[in-house]
Amino acid sequence: MTLKVYLSGEIHTDWREQIIEGAKGLDVSFSAPNTDHDSSDDCGVAILGAEPNKFWHDHKGAKLNAIRTRTLIGEADVVVVRFGEKYKQWNAAFDAGYAAALGKSLIVLHPAEHQHALKEVDAAALAVAEEPAQVVEMLRYVLTGALPA
């Protein structure tokens, strides 16, 4: 059984790469949103045409990105949502809520200092991790039943 894992959330650190590298050898396939900030922001106008008003520029991009996000979350067995330290990831909170509403297995990943701010999101998750390595061990356990050495 290939476990399909969607990696949502902050794009400013290498947490995705840490999880993907750590999961080598496990039967896991990963997907994610477009993590190239500029192309994610500009996809709507690049495909559908320029917009002089920034609101409509962003609106077009958000809608196209939502097609990708909804599709990939819908196909996922597990959704991992990372909240980083530097920026507020409102889209990550939305992804967590969407995954929870779909009944997806949700893992939330954030530093301990965000626990209070994210208590409602954490309450919807099946697991809350502070480090990418913990997510890897969760995936290993789900697939093999093996505990960390």
Automatic annotation (TrEMBL):
<dbReference type="InterPro" id="IPR019884">
    <property type="entry name" value="YtoQ_family_protein"/>
</dbReference>
<dbReference type="Pfam" id="PF11071">
    <property type="entry name" value="Nuc_deoxyri_tr3"/>
</dbReference>
<protein>
    <submittedName>
        <fullName>YtoQ family protein</fullName>
    </submittedName>
</protein>
